Amino acid sequence: MEETNSHRIHTFSLLILTFSLLSPLPLSSFSPTDNHLISCGSTVDTTVDNRRFISDSNPNSPLLSSAKTIPLTNQSPSPYSIQIYNSARIFKKPSKYAFEIEEPGTHMVRLHFHAFFSSNLDLSDAQFHVLVNGYVALSNFSVGKVRDFVVKEYFIWADSDKIVINFVPAKKGDYGFVNAIEVISAPKDLIADVGFLVNGNKDEKFVGLTKQALETVHRINVGGPKVTPFNDTVWRTWIPDHEFLKSSNDLSKRMYFGGRIHYQIGGASREVGPDFVYKTARVITNTNGSVLNVNMTWEFPVDEGYKYLVRMHFCDIASISLGLIHFNVYVNGYLAYEDLDLSSITYTLASPFYVDFVVDDDSSGVLRVSVGPTNKTMAYGVDGILNGVEIMKMNNSMGSLGGKICAGMVLKSWPRGNIGVLVPFVAGLCLLLSLALVMHRRTVGLRNPVSWSKLPTEVPGVDLNHGNLHLSGKA
Question: Where in the cell is it found (predicted)?
Answer without folding.
Answer: Membrane
